[in-house]
Amino acid sequence: MEKFYFEEPSIGRKEDAIAYINEFYEYNSDINGTGGLNRYLADYEMWLKKLEEDYARIPDEKKVPARTYFLVREGDNRIIGMINIRLALNESLRKYGGHIGYSIRPTERGKGYNKINLYLGLKVCQDYGIDKVLMDADKDNPASWRTMEALGGVNIRGFYDEKNAHCIVRNYEINVDESVRNNLAIYEPMTVNGIFREN
Ligand SMILES: CC(C)(COP(=O)(O)OP(=O)(O)OC[C@H]1O[C@@H](n2cnc3c(N)ncnc32)[C@H](O)[C@@H]1OP(=O)(O)O)[C@@H](O)C(=O)NCCC(=O)NCCS
User: Fold this and answer.
1) CATH fit for domain 4-130+177-196, picks 1.10.390, 3.60.21, 3.40.630, 1.10.10
2) Burial of 131 per CB tally in 10 Å (0-12, 13-18, 19+)
3) pLDDT tens, 76-101?
């Protein structure tokens, strides 16, 4: 069985990380959950520094502390996805964006990998004491809201977002402990022992 884990971005992943983002451009795909990597392709080292700063932030109305990880497939050591986990919410994220942003590279979609990504992300939330995760997805992005629903997400609200998405956005809430408990049997066999490995 294929197994997956989270890896903290490091200098050793520079080429792989850039190739990950370039694939989104090649396929003209939305980019999400990358901690801004797409804006730092010319200066990966600076991005690593930014991630350190992201983690150390004191939450305010502009920024909150966050962690960004690569989802790696053990068998071929390939970056399959990314996730950005906000460790606190401000008013703006409560309305739009929530705790988690994620992506799976275009050539690896539709294989259930994002569900593993979110499962591992919820385990990280557990470690940080986040009980309820808020997330949202555009109504026309079923792959995203179905991921949330598959992990026990409850659609708590829908609204037309004039400011950011310019479409109907669905808000979800996930009870973290309940979700991890209910999905353990499915996803734990697809993850390495523990959540993380170092590159
Ligand atoms: C959203 C995204 C992460 C989904 O990744 P993925 O690996 O293809 O998702 P999965 O294969 O794990 O599928 C998750 C669920 O969505 C469904 N799904 C997958 N692709 C779908 C599609 N094209 N249309 C409808 N449903 C789809 C799956 O069937 C599954 O639901 P199920 O468990 O009820 O069967 C990926 O499309 C992506 O990176 N998109 C660009 C960035 C983005 O939009 N991020 C989310 C912003 S909120």
Assistant:
1) 3.40.630
2) exposed
3) 999 999 999 999 999 999 999 999 99
- Measured in angstroms, how far is the CA atom of residue 110 from the centroid of ligand 1? 6
Q: Give CA–CA dist 85/102, Å, rounded.
A: 9
Question: What six digits make up the tokens of 29?
Answer: 């795909």
93 lines ligand 1 (CB under 6 A): no
Domain ranges within the chain, ordered by starting residue: 4-130+177-196
Give the Cα separation of 162 and 168 in Å (integer).
9
Check: pTM over 0.70? Answer yes or no: yes
CA of 84 to the centre of ligand 1 (A): 16
Phi and psi of 24, rounded to 5°?
Answer: -65, -40
Instruction: Provide the greatest CA pair distance for the chain.
Output: 44
Q: How far is the CA of 116 from the centre of ligand 1 (A)?
A: 11
